[in-house]
C-alpha cells in the first residue's frame, strides 16, 4: 500500500506576472506550455518558507522545490525564484525519468540544468537547485 504525500503548491510572485502578462507573448506561451499554475503565488513560497495559509495538493510521488536564480541582462541579481509542488504535476510535460530517479529515495538537494530536470526542447538551459521531499511538503 502506498502513502499519498501532501505537497505545497506555490511559486514566487514574479512567476504570477509571467503567467498573467509575461514579458512578451512568447514567454507567456512558454510558461503555460511547460508549467502548471500553482494554488498560490506568494512570498511565503520563498526562502525561508512560511507555510501559513499555503495550499497543499495530494501527490502520489515526491514533493519538489525548484530554486532559480534571477538574471537580468545576463547578470545574477541575487534574487531567487521558487516553485514548490508535486513531481507529477509541477511541469505539464513531466520530468525526465532518469533525473527524477535520483530524487525518489532520499530527501536530497542537487544543482542541475533545468533541461536535465524538465522535458525541454532546449539544451542551453539555466542551472537550478532542486530539492526533494519523500514525505509531506
Notes on the protein architecture:
With 137 residues, the protein is α+β, with helices and mostly antiparallel strands. The protein has one domain. Helix content is 19%, strand content 34%. It has 4 helices and 8 strands; from the N terminus they run ββααββββαβαβ. It has helices spanning 13-20, 25-34, 97-100, 114-117; strands at residues 5-8, 10-11, 40-41, 56-59, 63-72, 75-86, 109-113, 127-133. β5 and β6 (75-86) form a beta hairpin. 23% of the residues are buried. The mean pLDDT is 84.
Mean pLDDT: 84
Continuous helix count: 4
Low-confidence blocks of residues: none
Distance between the termini: 20 Å
Biggest beta-sheet profile: 6 strands, mixed
Summing up helix and strand content along with how strands pair, one would put the structural category as alpha+beta
User: Could you tell me the strand content as a percent range?
Assistant: 25-35%
User: What is the total domain count?
Assistant: 1
Order of helices and strands: EEHHEEEEHEHE
Number of strand segments: 8
Write out the strand line-up for the largest beta sheet, numbering strands in chain order: 3-2-6-5-8-7
* Silhouette: globular
Round the Cα radius of gyration to an integer and report it: 14 Å
Short overview:
InterPro entries: Ly-6-related. The chain is an alpha+beta fold and 137 residues long. Helices cover 19% and strands 34% of the residues.
Amino acid at each position: 500500500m502506498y502513502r499519498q504525500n501532501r505537497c505545497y503548491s506555490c511559486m514566487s510572485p514574479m512567476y504570477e506576472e509571467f503567467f498573467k502578462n509575461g514579458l512578451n507573448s512568447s514567454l507567456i506561451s512558454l510558461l503555460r506550455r511547460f508549467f502548471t499554475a500553482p494554488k498560490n503565488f506568494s512570498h511565503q513560497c520563498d526562502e525561508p518558507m512560511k507555510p501559513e495559509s499555503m495550499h497543499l495538493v495530494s501527490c502520489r510521488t515526491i514533493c519538489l522545490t525548484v530554486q532559480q536564480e534571477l538574471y537580468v541582462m545576463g547578470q545574477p541579481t541575487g534574487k531567487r525564484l521558487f516553485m514548490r509542488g508535486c513531481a507529477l504535476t509541477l511541469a505539464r510535460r513531466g520530468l525526465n525519468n532518469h533525473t527524477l530517479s535520483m530524487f525518489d529515495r532520499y530527501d536530497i538537494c542537487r544543482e542541475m540544468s533545468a533541461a536535465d530536470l524538465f522535458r525541454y526542447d532546449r539544451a542551453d538551459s539555466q542551472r537550478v537547485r532542486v530539492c526533494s521531499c519523500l514525505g509531506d511538503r
